[in-house]
Amino acid sequence: MDIRNTLGPYLNPRVISMMFFSIAGGIPFLLITSTLGVWLADEGLSTSASSTLRAFAQTPYGFKFLWAHIIHQNGVPFLKRLGHYRSWIMTSQLCIIVGLIALAFTQPGEGPVAVTILGMLVSFFSSTHDIAMGGYRIYTFKDTEQGYASGASGWGFRIGILISGAYALRLADQFSWSTVYVIMACIMSIGLLTVLLNPEPPRSEEDQLVEAYNLFKVARILKQQFFDTKPWFWIFVYIACYKVSDAIMNTFTWQFLNDSGFTKTQVSNAAFASFFPSIVGSALGGIINSRLNVIAGMLVTAFLHIFTSFIFVGQTYHSHSELYMISALAFENFSCGFGTATIFTFFSLITSKHYAAIQFALFTASASLIKSFLLVKPLGVIAGSVTWREFFLFISFFGFASIFVIAKLAGLLTSLKQRQT
What we know:
There is one protein chain. Helices cover 79% and strands 0% of the residues. The protein is mostly helical. It folds into two domains: 9-214, MFS general substrate transporter like domains (Growth Hormone, Chain: A, Up-down Bundle), CATH 1.20.1250.20; 231-349 and 386-421, no CATH class. α4 packs across α7. It is globular and about 55 Å long.
């Protein structure tokens, strides 16, 4: 395999731009989830109150398909010169910045309601950013390039959550949380500059003829273009199996390591050390999904999820080994980076370009809903009822289940493979 031809697409300015777009997409995510949880704990809120607040703050992520048709239908009127999707990306980033600055001047211990409302607003505009970026990426890149674009998006998202996670925690040791959130808002300006430096992707006349519809027509279109033509049940089962691993990383890993006796500083240092493996995973995921096909990417993702579970089982036998912990987090981040590139490629390929924003929003919102409402709470109950060793052995089952589901999706995946050749 020619390394220049393999890695060359990542040097394409359009592909590189996806990384910077996604940095702006990743930053707000942890600022209304894990990082916000640390701030709330410092303010004296109980774990129960903090979890409830953050659950409400994330709600818009799971329902973004409800307004995706508006974004697909029209650009932002006062930013028409930017083009259709760029106008929405710019607007959502500006609103996220305003929301983060407003959050910076709240007092969570005294006014949790204000924090919840502002968190929901940040989540709403972050979801809007995701919708617009999904449409922008699908229209900008050919099917054969979607893997590389998704890999670069994975890099950017991982950089974004590193900034708003480990870096924000380190800043919080030196400054107030208000200052930290203002700094995060300033870093979001990376996205604004990226919008200005990149062109709007062209859309055919046919794409623009399908824009005048309401939510009821959206439902009819989704039924005709997706539910009547694709094995939707198995697609959603695959998403559920995939999101189990994602839920583990974002929800339970730090709790497990904390219960194992590691300090926040040790875990933070390991998170920084694990950043490079996540970038490698995203890059390799983009290469596998583009140079081979999405079937290979999905199978590799399933095996990586299985191995990640077994590695954490091993951590239970080495509960005080910081070196093992760093290695475990590094492999988990590699697996997550690879998996993100794969799932984004899969979503992009099963999405019709005529309804790009709507269908992409449906898939990503479904993934968020499955994770938030169907997985995290039941998995939390299971984690509290068994040992961590038994818990991670149970999680490995979903990796094996993914392989079975991929076989059920053979017909669809074969057609996607043909589109990538």
